[in-house]
TrEMBL record:
Organism from which the protein derives: Thiomicrorhabdus lithotrophica
Record HAMAP family: DarP
Keyword Cytoplasm tagged: yes
Keywords: Coiled coil, Cytoplasm, Ribosome biogenesis, RNA-binding, rRNA-binding
The protein's name in its UniProt record: Dual-action ribosomal maturation protein DarP
Cellular location(s): Cytoplasm
This protein's encoding gene: darP
CDD domains for this protein: YjgA-like (cd16331)
Keyword Transferase in annotation: no
Assigned protein family: Belongs to the DarP family.
Coiled coil: 88-115
Length: 181
């Protein structure tokens, strides 16, 4: 009996699921997409515990993320990251939902940051320009306490001139932040 050559060396091609063939042009793209999902899991692990709880993740995923947060360096850390990535890839609806929630959180942070920059600009203008900026501010925000603002502005200028810590400027910023915008 003659044995055909290379029968033991036949390579079996690993089949790629249909959804991966349709969505991606190459295996490299598939690997990059899988790595992006794993990176998303790492991004989740970098969040605080309260932020993770606000996302209302399934308990299995949340527990896996909390476990990852508490792990030290080593091969188990890599396995846990891969496990989270695999879990996320298995449920595309969950993955989309998490991405939307993270985008909403990021948008909220940007809006809050822009709001704080606006407040900082007002505080700086009030300290530098004095009554001119104060009158403009009070035209826009008439519920503000003029006397208290003037006192903080006066004290902030004095602290600046004496190179003291900006206690009054901080108080002024807190007041501006507390105003109903």
């Amino acid at each position: 009996m003659v044995r055909p050559r290379n029968i033991n060396r036949v390579k079996l091609k690993k089949e790629i699921p249909d959804w991966e063939q349709e969505e991606f042009e190459s295996r490299t793209d598939i690997k990059k997409a899988a790595q992006a999902v794993t990176d998303l899991g790492e991004q989740l692990a970098e969040m605080t515990e309260s932020e993770i709880k606000k996302l209302q993740l399934p308990t299995t995923l949340a527990d896996a993320i909390f476990l990852l947060k508490n792990m030290d360096k080593g091969p188990a850390l890599k396995r846990q990251k891969l496990y989270i990535g695999k879990y996320l890839r298995q449920d595309e609806a969950l993955l989309r939902e998490i991405k939307e929630k993270l985008a909403a959180v990021e948008t909220k942070k940007k809006q809050q940051n822009a709001h704080f920059h606006k407040l900082e600009k007002w505080r700086d203008r009030l300290v530098e320009e004095g009554d001119t900026a104060l009158h403009e501010f009070l035209e826009i925000y008439n519920q503000a306490d003029r006397q208290q603002l003037r006192q903080w502005i006066r004290n902030a200028k004095k602290e600046q001139a004496e190179s003291k810590p900006p206690k009054s400027a901080r108080e002024l910023f807190k007041y501006l932040k507390a105003l109903d915008w």
